[in-house]
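Researcher: Please generate the 3D structure of the following complex. Treat every line as part of one assembly.
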Amino acid sequence: MNRREFVTQTCMVCLGGGLLTTVLSACSSTHYVTGVIDPKGLTVLQSEFVEIKKDNTLTRSFIIVQHESLEFPIYLYRINDQEYSALWMKCTHQGSELNAAGDHLYCPSHGSEFDKKGNVSQGPAEKNLRSFPVSVTDDKIFIALT
Ligand code: FES
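Model: Done. Output below.
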């Protein structure tokens, strides 16, 4: 093996390891919650944003709220204790379910991307995501399904 082959193979291993780490960390940080539904919306507990890792208490930046009666899940992003954004995880291009990746969402079908407030950041989608009003009372987060 010459120097060029060694460098090429070493870089490929590093890139592969880095990509795997990114994918695994994205998977492990996604927290799914089944919300409690009523005729006006969905409720989840604020404590769903708390994550205990090796004696450390962390705050998740987002959770995915689902319910069997909903066609698509809802991405619930925490701006602060009293402010959240709730986004319908249906791509506005051709209706595929979106994937969450930290502070943005992306579409596996054709690559559209949306920011944490649902604005299109990359096409082909042209319309922003559907969003829902969110209110916080005590330790409960209410997502109004309007
Ligand atoms: S369906 Fe999402 S980008 Fe086409």
